[in-house]
Amino acid sequence: MKQNEPGGNVGVTRRSFVPRVAGAAAFLVVPRHVLGGSGQTAPSEKLNIAGVGVGAMGGGYLQNCESENIVALADVDHEFAAPTFKRYPKAKIYRDFRVMLEKEKAIDAVVIGTPDHTHAVVALTAMRLGKHVYCAKPLTRTIFEARTVARAAREAKVATQMSVQSCASEAACKTEDWVRSGVIGQIREVHIWTDRPIWPQGLARPAETPPVPEALDWDLWLGPAPVRPFHPLYHPFNWRGWYDFGTGALGDMACHALHIPFRALDLQYPTSVHASVNSVMVPALRGDADENWMRSRKAKYDETFPMASIVTWDFPARENAPRVRLFWYDGGLKPARPPELELERKLAGDGMLFVGEKGVILSGFTGEPALVPMSHGAPFTPPPPSARRSAGHYKEWIAACKGGPKPNCNFEFGSLLVETALLGTIAQRTGEPLAWSAKDMRITNDVNANQFINPPYRDGWSL
Q1: In this structure, are residues 358 and 352 in contact, taking their beta carbons and an 8 Å threshold?
Q2: Contact by Cβ (8 Å): 428, 252
Q3: Contacts (Cβ under 8 Å, ≥6 apart) of 447
Q4: What is the distance between the alpha carbons of residues 340 and 118, in angstroms, rounded to a whole number?
Q5: Phi/psi at 391 (nearest 5 deg)?
Q6: Whole-number CA gyration radius for the chain
Q7: Beta strand 187-193 pairing with 109-112
Q8: Cα separation of 463 and 457, whole Å?
Q9: Cβ contacts of residue 80 below 8 Å, gap of 6+?
Q10: How does pLDDT run across 409-463, given as a tens digit for each residue?
């Protein structure tokens, strides 16, 4: 089947990135560092790391990998990436990641900090060349990409990590331990909220067409996305709110929290999802134009994510555990306060509640867990730490590149979180309850909604 068919083979061959490698041999490339030998990097020595998309978060990721050699950098905007270029003066500089990967044969691993819509094409190109990959969250912009990337990572046998730093935090691990301990009994509800978005959403497409900055290759920035004129509402930061480039507040932040209930409650794929959204534009100042103000209040735009939403997923019962309903809130919305929570206690900008038959656990994405009420008087001895602890988010990936165990947010686990979040973004776009068949990778009750699982790429780009 073709790449843009939801039920297509998730291992489809890409075009136009690197010379095509026939059949399964594409996944049999052995990373250089594994081989060792004369002139090669042994597992105990430093990796040669390349960065793709290094002007913002990507530059920060690289700073956490400076125990290794930063040897090459690719970014479509050389002005925006200039501080990172300056930080690594010995690194070779490129615009096109494909050219970099073709020329720089000594690269062992790739760090990806591009916008969401190019994560998959960069990650797949690197993995199919036998490179280890660290990628910004969410790992992909579509569910089909998530499945494709997870399969490629599994078959290439490279070390992978998605940028969910909280996966390695002691507080997150402790929250998992508390939930698993049974202190609040069986859990049927989990509530997660964030203060995002902190970028514009609920917008109409801009009508202005300002000139493309000289330092920016706009066509390369667009990559597989549909063609549209350059505008600063897209680059360098506000792309997150646009369907074609980002995944909104849900895609941006959910992975920072979902790993906790997924691990603590042994969740897999949800069976259904629905969303309630605020999809109107509210002007900053009403002024005297009442008629125009009311018209703008009713306007609904179909290119950006909503300003606020509540998304609800249902997960089936597991062995000795009941069904779970998971709620997501963004745009300033929060769940109802537990009646046991003291009035002076605030719900932070980001957080989560585990609601059990015997009580409630309140936690942040990276904050310490607490029993509700927080002045809990019943005796409670925290459980001993589980075996799942980390030496550090970036350290565990670097160690895995050198032959160590899988990182905590490897692509196979990370893709499960991403698929759940992206299913929620489809519910945000349709406004309808959706039944999900994970086995078939299809929405079974809304044929039209399946178009969002694997939308077509622009000509010249493919997986």
Answers
A1: no
A2: no
A3: none
A4: 45
A5: -80, -10
A6: 23
A7: unpaired
A8: 9
A9: 55, 56, 215, 216, 236
A10: 999 999 999 999 999 999 999 999 999 999 999 999 999 999 999 999 999 999 9
Instruction: Find, among 20, 93, 21, the residue nearest to 54 by Cα.
Output: 93
Q: Which residue has the tokens 């509640």?
A: 353
| Residue 185, Ramachandran bin (φ over 0: left; ψ between -120 and 50: alpha; else beta) | left
Residue type, 317: A
pLDDT 10s digits, 199-215: 988 888 899 999 999 99
Tokens 């086995």 identify what position? 439
| Residue 271: closest CA among 444, 432, 142 | 444
pLDDT score of 442? 98
Residues ≥6 apart with Cβ < 8 Å to 346 = none
32 within 8 A of 108, measured Cβ to Cβ? yes
Q: Please state the pTM of the whole predicted model.
A: 0.88
